[in-house]
Amino acid sequence: MSNMLDQHFITFPIDDWKFLGPDFNRAKFNSRLEKLAGEHKNFDFANIQEVYSPLAEFFYVCFRDAMIVKQSRSHFLKMAEPLTPFMIGVAGSVASGKSSLSLLLQSMFESFNEDLKVEVVSTDSFLLSKEALKARGMSGRKGFPESFHRVDLLKFVQDVSAGFPNVSCPLYSHRLGDIVKGELQVIDRPDVFILEGLNILQTYHTSSAQEAEFVSDYFDVSVFLDADINALEQWYVERFLAFVNEAHGDKTAAHFKYIELSHDERVQTAKRIWNHVNAQNLKENILPSRQRADIIIHKTADHMADQIMISKHWL
After folding, report:
1. Structure confidence at residue 101 (pLDDT)
2. 218 near 193, Cβ under 8 Å?
3. Which domains occur in the chain, in start order?
4. For 144-177, what is each residue's pLDDT tens digit?
5. Closest by alpha carbon to 42, among 290, 294, 269, 242?
6. Cβ neighbours of residue 276 under 8 Å, at least 6 residues apart?
């Protein structure tokens, strides 16, 4: 970690973090955690209990406090408008575990309160289509800032944050590696909204009035999943190989074209893509946004979190 992070963040080793917070209803919710640990191979049950259960409890406390403040403001202003959702951002590199953490947080919130409506959206839904990327000569820049419909993403987050009903966005498929034509994901006034993606903490130098604000302006709390670059590369390779295996017999799958490669050739292909695209994007755009997160979770090579850092400016 850099000196800047050390100065501006409070660090909790896991041996300290795991004892923090009240015990909401962990006994009730342990069965769900065990189920999730089975569904997501990157989640160890003990690590969920020690790291992510306290984290979700902390977020739930923040959510309840935020709702009380919003209710008090609405009461004072004599407003009948619906309450706006609690907004969570989950950032980090490709293959860092953003989607898995977002789904885990969703399940945990629902365990705390079964009446809560929790929605998760990935910024992948705002990527340019394969066709558009190819037409612009940007096929090798997928995931970089310019490969997203940034204005559309910002408008979507603004509308969800404002409590608008039936806010829609495109749907991205990892199987296709592309936007699904004609499919939409509709977000209808959730209590908690989780947005995960590479670019959610990034800022842009632009003269456009439409981009004078940033997605991160609308988060109540943001998390960055951090790890050594060698670990991230290995996780990417493992995910790439899994996608290729899943593509057997499916000519529409994005990774079907790698089926005929040997195992070693697949590994080398994944490493080449990582080095030429994802590692470059990580260094140029993703890592520089890390210090803008409210919470940084550092993970070791075995996917286990070993340290939690919380921004002093957010507390």
Report:
1. 92
2. no
3. 3-311 (3.40.50.300)
4. 999 999 999 999 999 999 999 999 999 999 999 9
5. 242
6. 140
